[in-house]
Design the sequence.
């Protein structure tokens, strides 16, 4: 399996063992920002790909230009505070410690994920190549609007919508 990490993370795929346990060497997977990298890799790959797993894809097609610019401005102003807040929102109430996976994200990576244009025809193109596309979303995601993402992905993939789950697909353990 080829796995692509989320923004500000590295080697966190073990957090998604449940979703990745059936992956094989012909599977490409990515979490959040990594989902963007995974789909782009699958589209360009000349190697055999059977399955593409997009875990909480960084879907911001529904966000305004002003929202995106504001995120970049906050990052530029204080990247450490932005990243700390971002990582807290990823785990929202799940008691998952991301310290061992933390990696400093860059302004350019944040810009890329905010401005990535998800297109249904890209997903259809992969399906037409025989690639099974799976998308997993958490209902209580504080990073993306999971309902908008669900509306986008549901007709072009096998989509799982996990009730009460956050961005890392964990159920809230505390208030």
Sequence:
């Amino acid at each position: 399996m080829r796995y692509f990490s989320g923004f500000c993370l590295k080697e966190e795929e073990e957090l998604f063992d449940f979703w990745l346990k059936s992956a094989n060497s012909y599977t490409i997977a990515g979490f959040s920002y990594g989902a963007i990298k995974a789909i782009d890799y699958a589209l360009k790959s000349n190697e055999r790909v059977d399955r593409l797993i997009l875990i909480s894809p960084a879907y911001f097609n529904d966000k305004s230009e002003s929202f995106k610019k504001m995120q970049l401005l906050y990052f530029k102003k204080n990247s450490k505070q932005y990243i700390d807040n971002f990582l807290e929102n990823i785990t929202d109430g799940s008691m998952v410690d991301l310290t061992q996976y933390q990696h400093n994200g860059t302004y350019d990576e944040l810009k890329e994920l905010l401005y990535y244009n998800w297109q249904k025809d890209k997903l259809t193109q992969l399906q037409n190549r025989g690639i099974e596309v799976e998308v997993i979303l958490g209902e209580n995601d504080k990073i993306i609007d999971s309902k908008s993402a669900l509306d986008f992905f549901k007709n072009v993939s096998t989509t799982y919508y996990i009730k009460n789950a956050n961005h890392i697909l964990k159920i809230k353990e505390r208030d």
Residues 92 and 166 are 6 Å apart (CA to CA). Helices lie at 17-20, 33-44, 65-77, 79-91, 107-115, 120-128, 146-153. The radius of gyration is 15 Å.
